[in-house]
């Protein structure tokens, strides 16, 4: 399979399936398209009709776009891995948590864009963004209390991959978090697949100025 992604420094949506596949040892070839360039749109449209990354190109010729659709496809194709929790009730909660990340937190996305090389503590803390952060903090605490950790539903799963880009934002902008949420963010950052993504992002030389003003 091939996974078409954008820059690791910027592409929060791309990060999720890449981390997921890397963590579970699902083989894939990475195809990276630099974002924000004149040829970017055409390059992505050549592989994905959505015009967006990520896109998973399966070994039987299927193109699957959208992060959550890719995650569900991988869960179906690789049932030997617990991409979702095995317990049905935990799985339902994990899907709810992941879908909320997929559809919500617009203020956070806008004022604290993912730019892993950037460090701007305190920036972007608008009232709407702080409300998003409070909801995420509460959600993480509830999941960790229910599962006992170390990740949201015990073992690392799709839910953790969905929130990994939020952790990257928190690393860059350093909003105030509860002690349990901060510890969870540190564990996600140290998870080997996430750490590999961060390392690769820091080595990239391509820049999108409006998304990385201080790097």
Automatic annotation (TrEMBL):
* Class of this enzyme: transferase
Q: Which GO terms describe its cellular component?
A: cytoplasm
PROSITE patterns, sorted: GST_NTER
Out of the domains of life, which is the source?
A: Bacteria
Residue span, GST N-terminal domain: 1-82
Spell out the Gene3D superfamilies in the cross-references.
1.20.1050.10, Glutaredoxin
GO MF terms on file?
glutathione transferase activity
The UniProt record lists the keyword Glycosyltransferase: no
What Pfam families would the database entry show?
GST_C_2 (PF13410), GST_N_2 (PF13409)
Question: Which keywords belong to this entry?
Answer: Transferase
Coiled coil regions, renumbered to chain: none
Q: Name the EC number(s).
A: 2.5.1.18
Alphabetical list of CDD domains matching this protein: GST_C_3, GST_N_1
Task: Tell me the protein's name.
Answer: Glutathione S-transferase YfcF
Write down the species: Paraburkholderia caffeinitolerans
């Amino acid at each position: 399979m091939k996974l078409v992604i954008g820059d690791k420094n910027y592409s929060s949506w791309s990060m999720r399936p890449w981390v997921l596949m890397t963590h579970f040892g699902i083989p894939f070839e990475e195809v990276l398209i630099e974002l924000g360039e004149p040829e970017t749109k055409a390059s992505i449209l050549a592989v994905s009709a959505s015009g967006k990354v990520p896109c998973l190109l399966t070994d039987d010729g299927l193109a699957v776009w959208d992060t959550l659709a890719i995650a569900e496809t991988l869960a179906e194709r690789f049932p030997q891995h617990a991409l979702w929790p095995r317990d049905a009730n935990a799985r339902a909660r994990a899907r709810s948590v992941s879908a909320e990340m997929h559809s919500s937190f617009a203020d956070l996305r806008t004022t604290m864009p993912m730019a892993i090389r950037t460090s701007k503590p305190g920036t972007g803390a608008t009232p709407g963004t702080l409300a998003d952060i409070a909801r995420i903090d509460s959600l993480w605490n509830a999941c960790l209390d229910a599962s006992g950790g170390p990740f949201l539903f015990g073992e690392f799963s799709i839910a953790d991959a969905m929130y990994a880009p939020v952790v990257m934002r928190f690393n860059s902008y350093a909003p105030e978090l509860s002690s349990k949420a901060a510890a969870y963010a540190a564990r996600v950052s140290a998870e080997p697949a996430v750490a590999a993504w961060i390392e690769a992002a820091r080595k990239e030389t391509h820049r999108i100025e409006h998304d990385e003003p201080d790097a």
